[in-house]
Design goal:
- The complex is a heterodimer of chains A (156) and B (735).
- Chain A is mainly β.
- In chain A, 4% of the residues lie in helices and 41% in strands.
- Chain A has a five-stranded mixed sheet, covered by helices on one side. A four-stranded mixed sheet of chain A has the order 1-6-2-9, with no helix packed on it.
- Chain B is an alpha/beta fold and 735 residues long.
- In chain B, the strands form four sheets. Chain B has an eight-stranded antiparallel sheet with strand order 4-3-2-1-5-6-7-8, covered by helices on one side.
- The chains are: A mainly beta (156), B alpha/beta (735).
C-alpha cells in the first residue's frame, strides 16, 4: 500500500469564535480494494445538533461530481467555496490518504462528529461512509467505513 | 495549404489517434451488449411500483439507479453489510452483479486519460482535436479532389493507397467529426471550461417531520414512469429530517418522507441537456446502435493512418531533389511545375537534367512562384501542369492564373505548355488548357503548341522532348521513368499468329508466370497479383523507354498474355513479335485500376477493335460467375484477325460471354464497331439505362467513334458518355 501524503498547515480550519487554541491532527483514511476508479471523499464536521459546521478536506478535483457526495452536497448546496484550498486528488482503491491539519480544541469532547462521504464512478454513492465522534479518548482508534473505507483514524 | 494541415497533424498524432480509436471502437460494443442483456421494464411501470417491489425484496434499499440502457441497479444495506445488484423490474429481485465491468473500466481509463490522470486527459483531448482538424481538412481535400462537395461519393481513380484512404475517409469522416467534437466538449466540461449548469440544491428543505409513508403511495412517484427515472435515493431510516431525492430525465426533486409532498423541484438546465446529449452521442449510452456505427467508423482510423503514411512516403519518393537547380534570375530556361501528388516534379527533374546536359542553365520551381520580373535572363519559359479535379489548379500552381491575368504585358520569353492528365477523365488536361488559353489571350509568344502527356506516358513525354529539341535547335532525348520498376524475365510459352493477310501481323503471346518471391506474394507486388486490363511494361533491347501493353490474362489464369501488333519499324513490337517459344523478354507490371470491370452483377458492354480486344477477352475468360457480357468486336477480316476465335464458342457455352457482335471493316461494305453499336441501338440503350457498365479498348479514333455513336444512342434517354464517365460507368483504355 502506498501512502498519499497531503500535508497542509491549515491554521484557520474550523476556528470557532473566541477559541484560538488549536492542535495538529493527522487524519488517515485507507481504502479497501473495491475494484473501481479513484474514490471522491469529502471530510467534514457537524455540530451536536447534526448541522454542518465546515469541511476538512475534499479528495477529488472535479466539482461536477460533488453531487454524488450527497450528504455533503445537501449540507453545503454544492458550494465549492467550502473546499477552496483544501482539495486534493481522488484516492485510488487500496490507497491511503493522510492529511495533517490544525483543529480547534473546542471541537473535541463537545459532541462534534466527523463525517466522510464517498463516491466512486459507476458504483454506489456512500454518504456517511464514516461518522465518528471527535473525542480525545477516541484518537488513534481505527474505525471501518460502510463500503469503501477499510480504516479511518485521527491522531493527535 | 490544406494538405499541410492534413499531413502534419496526421503524422504527429498517428499513435495517439490510433489508441483513441481502437479503444473507442472496443468501448462502443458495451452499450449495445448492455442493452441486449438487460431485462427491460414493462411499459407504463411507475417508479412507485418499482420502488415497492425493490423495497419488498431489499428492505434496506438506499438508492435505485436506471442507466440509459434501461438497466436498473439497486444499492442497499442489510444489517450493516452493503449490497448491490442489477434488478429485474418485473420482480424487484436482483438478477446480476452490479460491479463495474473491469475490462470496460480499463478501456475507459485508457481511452480518456492513458491512465495518466489529468495530463493524460489533456493529451487525449489533443488527440481528439487532431482528429477533428484531420477530418475537416481531409473532407476539404476529398471535395477538392472529387471536383466539389456534390461529387462527394464520386468514383475514385489512382493508386490503391490513395483510393483506400479516400474510400474509408469519406464514410468514416461523419463519425469522426461527431466523436472528436463531442470528446472535446466532454473534456472541456470535465475541466469546467464550459458551464455544466447544475442547479444548486436547497440546503435544508422544510420537512413535515413525519415518517413512514411507503413510496408506493407518493403521487409524484406514481406519476413518474420508470422509463424517465435516473435515480431515486431513499431517506435514512430514523432520520425524520431526511428526504427522498428523485432524479429524472426532466430534472431533480426532493420528496417528504412522511407526506410524499414534492418539497422542491428543478428542471434540467439547458447546459445539462447539452452535456447529456453530447455524452449520449459520444458514448452510445442511450443510443447503442449509433454507438456501434461510430465504433465501426473509428476502426477506419488505423487504416487511414497506414494508407496516409504510404501516400506521404510515395509523395516524398515521387518528388526528386533537383541537382544543380539554378536561381530564377540566372536561368536561361525557367521550368514551372504545377503538381498535386508530386509525379510531375519527376518529369521536371528529367527535363532539367536533359537541358542542363545540353548546356543550358535551368531553373525549376513551382507555378505558384511565378514571378516574371525575376526572370532577367530567361529565353524561354516551360510550364508542366497537371490538373486537379474538374480542371482546378493543382497544389503547386495556386494563384498562377491570377498572377498572369494581373500582368501588364506578357513576358517576352516564349512559352511552352505541357499538360499532364488522364484521358479517361472528361476534363483531360483542363488546367493546362486554361493556362495556354490565358497565355494566348495575354499575347504571350508561343515556343511550342500545347501538348499533353497521358497517364504519365514516357512515350508522350519523349515525343514532346523531341519537339522541344527541334525548337531549341539541339537534339533532346527525354527518357523519363517515374519510378524505375524492377523488371523480371519472362519466358514465351506459346504464340498464335493472325492478320498477316490483312497487312496487320499480330501475335497473341503467352508467357510463363515468373516465380513470385514470398515478399511479392505477401504484398501483391510485381506479377504476384494482376488482372486483365493491367499493363505490362516491356523494355526493348537497345531502348530505354518501356512500351506498355494491356494484359489479356489475370494471375489466376496462370500465364501472362498480351496481343501485340507488329508496327512497321517498331522497336519493341518488332522484337516481341519475333519471339519464339523459349525466348525471353524483360518486363514489369503496372497496375491500371481505372480499367476494371468492377464488382457486381451489372451487365458489361465491352467494346474493342484490333489488339484492343486483348484485355476484354481476358475479362470474358475470367467471368466464371456468369455476369452478362456483351462484346462488340471490330476486326478487319474474320478469316485473318479474329483473335480468340477458337475460344469464343466455349466461352459462350460456359456462360462467360452472353453475346458476341462482330464488325468487319474489310470488304464491300466496311462495318466498324460503332456501326455495330448503332445497329443494336435499342438493346444497348436498354442495357445502359438498366445500369450496364461500358468498357472501351483500342485506338483513339475508334474510341472517339464509339463515344459519338453512344452519344447518339443515349440521347433519347437523357444520358451521355460524359455523364456515364462521371458515374464511373464508362471507362476507356485508349492508345
Amino acid at each position: 500500500m502506498k501512502t498519499l501524503f497531503a500535508t497542509l498547515a491549515l491554521t484557520t480550519a474550523l476556528t470557532l469564535p473566541g477559541l484560538a487554541m488549536a492542535r495538529p491532527v493527522t487524519l488517515t483514511t485507507t481504502l479497501n480494494n473495491y475494484g473501481g476508479d479513484g474514490a471522491y471523499l469529502a471530510l467534514y464536521v457537524t455540530d451536536p445538533s447534526g448541522a454542518y459546521v465546515g469541511s476538512l478536506w475534499m479528495a477529488g478535483g472535479k466539482s461536477k461530481y460533488y453531487e454524488h457526495l450527497s450528504d455533503w452536497y445537501r449540507a453545503t448546496g454544492g458550494d465549492t467555496a467550502q473546499v477552496n484550498g483544501i482539495t486534493g486528488a481522488s484516492v485510488g482503491a487500496g490507497r491511503t490518504l493522510e492529511i495533517t491539519l490544525d483543529l480547534a480544541d473546542a471541537l473535541f469532547d463537545a459532541g462534534y462528529t466527523l463525517h466522510i462521504d464517498a463516491a466512486v464512478e459507476d458504483m454506489r454513492d456512500s454518504p456517511n461512509e464514516v461518522a465518528v465522534p471527535l473525542t480525545t479518548a477516541g484518537a488513534g482508534t481505527p474505525v471501518q467505513g460502510r463500503r469503501y473505507i477499510a480504516s479511518f483514524a485521527y491522531d493527535m | 495549404m490544406i494538405r499541410a494541415f492534413h499531413r502534419w497533424p496526421g503524422l504527429l498524432a498517428l499513435a495517439l489517434v490510433t489508441v483513441l480509436t481502437l479503444s473507442g471502437a472496443a468501448l462502443s460494443v458495451f452499450p449495445a451488449a448492455e442493452r441486449l442483456t438487460t431485462p427491460q421494464a414493462e411499459a407504463g411501470l411507475s417508479v412507485a411500483a418499482l420502488a415497492e417491489r425493490i423495497q419488498a425484496a431489499y428492505p434496506g434499499v438506499e438508492q435505485i439507479r436506471r442507466a440509459p440502457s434501461g438497466r436498473i441497479t439497486a444499492y442497499w444495506f442489510d444489517q450493516g453489510v452493503p449490497g448491490a445488484a442489477v434488478i429485474d423490474p418485473a420482480t424487484g429481485e436482483g438478477v446480476a452483479s452490479a460491479d463495474p465491468n473491469q475490462t470496460q473500466r480499463w478501456l475507459t481509463n485508457l481511452h480518456r486519460s492513458l491512465f495518466l490522470g489529468d495530463g493524460g486527459r489533456i493529451a487525449m483531448a489533443l488527440g481528439a482535436a487532431a482528429m477533428l482538424v484531420l477530418s475537416v481538412s481531409g473532407a476539404m481535400l476529398v471535395a477538392r479532389r472529387a471536383g466539389g462537395w456534390r461529387h462527394w461519393f464520386a468514383r475514385l481513380r489512382g493508386p490503391l493507397a490513395g483510393r483506400l484512404h479516400v474510400e474509408i475517409a469519406r464514410v468514416a469522416v461523419f463519425g469522426l467529426v461527431l466523436s472528436s467534437a463531442t470528446a472535446l466538449w466532454m473534456t472541456a466540461s470535465t475541466f469546467d471550461l464550459v458551464p455544466n449548469g447544475g442547479a444548486a440544491a436547497i440546503v435544508a428543505p422544510e420537512v413535515s417531520g413525519e415518517t413512514g409513508m411507503p413510496p408506493a403511495l407518493m403521487p409524484t412517484l406514481e406519476d413518474t414512469p420508470v422509463a424517465e427515472l435516473r435515480a431515486l435515493n431513499f431517506p435514512y431510516p430514523d432520520d425524520p429530517t431526511d428526504i427522498y431525492k428523485l432524479k429524472t430525465d426532466r430534472g431533480t426533486g426532493y420528496l417528504d418522507q412522511g407526506t410524499g409532498a414534492l418539497l422542491w423541484w428543478a428542471d434540467l438546465s439547458g447546459w445539462e441537456r447539452v452535456f447529456e446529449t453530447v455524452y449520449m452521442l459520444h458514448t452510445g449510452q442511450g443510443a447503442a446502435a449509433l454507438g456501434l456505427v461510430l465504433g465501426l467508423m473509428a476502426l477506419g482510423v488505423p487504416a487511414l493512418g497506414a494508407t496516409g503514411v504510404l501516400i506521404w512516403l510515395a509523395g516524398r519518393r515521387g518528388r526528386p531533389r533537383i541537382r544543380g537547380n539554378q536561381p530564377a534570375g540566372r536561368a536561361e530556361t525557367v521550368v514551372l511545375v504545377g503538381s498535386e501528388g508530386g509525379s510531375t516534379w519527376g518529369f521536371a527533374a528529367t527535363l532539367h537534367a536533359a537541358l542542363t546536359g545540353a548546356g543550358q542553365s535551368v531553373h525549376v520551381g513551382p507555378m505558384s512562384g511565378f514571378a516574371p520580373e525575376r526572370y532577367a535572363r530567361a529565353e524561354r519559359i516551360i510550364v508542366l501542369a497537371a490538373t486537379y479535379g474538374d480542371g482546378d489548379a493543382p497544389a503547386s500552381a495556386r494563384g498562377f492564373l491570377d498572377r498572369l491575368a494581373a500582368l501588364d504585358r506578357a513576358p517576352r520569353a516564349p512559352l511552352a505548355v505541357l499538360g499532364f492528365g488522364d484521358r479517361s477523365f472528361p476534363d483531360y488536361c483542363a488546367f493546362a488548357r486554361a493556362v495556354a488559353a490565358a497565355a494566348q489571350a495575354k499575347g504571350w509568344p508561343e515556343l511550342l503548341a500545347l501538348d499533353t502527356v497521358d497517364r504519365q506516358s514516357p512515350q508522350d513525354f519523349a515525343r514532346w522532348g523531341r519537339a522541344l529539341g527541334e525548337a531549341l535547335g539541339t537534339p533532346l532525348e527525354l527518357s523519363h521513368q517515374p519510378v524505375v520498376p524492377k523488371t523480371e524475365t519472362l519466358t514465351l510459352v506459346s504464340r498464335r499468329d493472325y492478320g498477316a493477310e490483312v497487312q496487320a501481323p499480330t501475335a497473341i503471346l503467352r508467357f510463363a508466370l515468373p516465380r513470385a518471391t514470398l515478399w511479392q506474394r505477401l504484398t501483391g507486388a510485381g506479377f504476384a497479383r494482376f488482372e486483365a486490363g493491367d499493363l505490362i511494361g516491356i523494355v526493348p533491347e537497345g531502348g530505354t523507354v518501356p512500351r506498355f501493353y494491356s494484359l489479356a490474362s489475370a494471375r489466376r489464369d496462370g500465364f501472362i498474355e498480351i496481343v501485340v501488333r507488329k508496327h512497321p519499324g517498331g522497336l519493341c513490337s518488332g522484337q516481341l513479335t519475333a519471339l519464339e517459344p523459349g525466348d525471353t523478354a524483360t518486363g514489369f507490371l503496372r497496375r491500371n485500376p481505372g480499367f476494371r470491370p468492377g464488382r457486381g452483377r451489372a451487365p458489361l458492354i465491352l467494346i474493342g477493335a484490333g489488339t484492343g480486344i486483348g484485355p476484354l477477352a481476358g475479362m470474358v475468360r475470367g467471368n466464371a460467375r456468369g455476369r452478362p457480357i456483351h462484346l462488340f468486336f471490330g476486326m478487319r477480316h474474320p478469316d485473318s484477325d479474329f483473335f480468340y476465335r477458337d475460344e469464343m464458342p466455349a466461352w459462350q457455352a460456359e456462360g462467360r460471354l452472353t453475346r458476341l457482335v462482330t464488325a468487319v471493316s474489310r470488304g464491300a461494305r466496311p462495318h466498324y464497331v460503332q456501326d455495330a453499336l448503332r445497329g443494336d441501338a435499342a438493346q444497348v440503350a436498354r442495357l445502359i439505362r438498366d445500369g450496364a457498365r461500358v468498357m472501351v479498348c483500342g485506338g483513339r479514333d475508334m474510341a472517339a467513334g464509339v463515344a459519338d455513336a453512344l452519344a447518339e444512342i443515349l440521347a433519347p434517354s437523357g444520358l451521355s458518355p460524359a455523364t456515364l464517365k462521371a458515374e464511373g460507368r464508362y471507362v476507356e483504355d485508349v492508345y
